[in-house]
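Researcher: I'd like a structural prediction for the single chain below. Treat it as a standalone chain; there are no partners to consider.
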Amino acid sequence: MVNLLAKAIMLLLSHLNGLDLTMTDETVMSTAIEEALRYESSITFLGRASGEDMVIRGQPIRKGQIIMLMMNAANRDPPRFADADRFDVIRRDNKHVAFGWGIHLSLGAPLARCEAATAFDVLFKRYPKSELVDWEPK
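Model: Treating it as a single chain, here is the predicted structure.
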């Protein structure tokens, strides 16, 4: 959750048009949160052990072999996301894998989304003139 808030705040403040839009249209906040999750996933990769021998795109995988799933790369996949390297707070087709998927979907995903929406609502109402001083953390 901390990573989601920190990264999303940095993204929103560095894309002021996006911030202005989220502050003036409350319906955009949920799409902005989803876009922040897609654009800067908190979990960058997951390791899994293959349950059986298989071939994926011509690459043989042996049973028990460790496979690294690059979540951040999947969330920036150009065939899946139009203009994948652009942060777009109103992106509608945004089925990212920041919280996993299917039976591997994080149980905390709904709570994280709710907490993020509440935090941003309070933060940007309390500090409407927030601005990013420096992109590089010190």
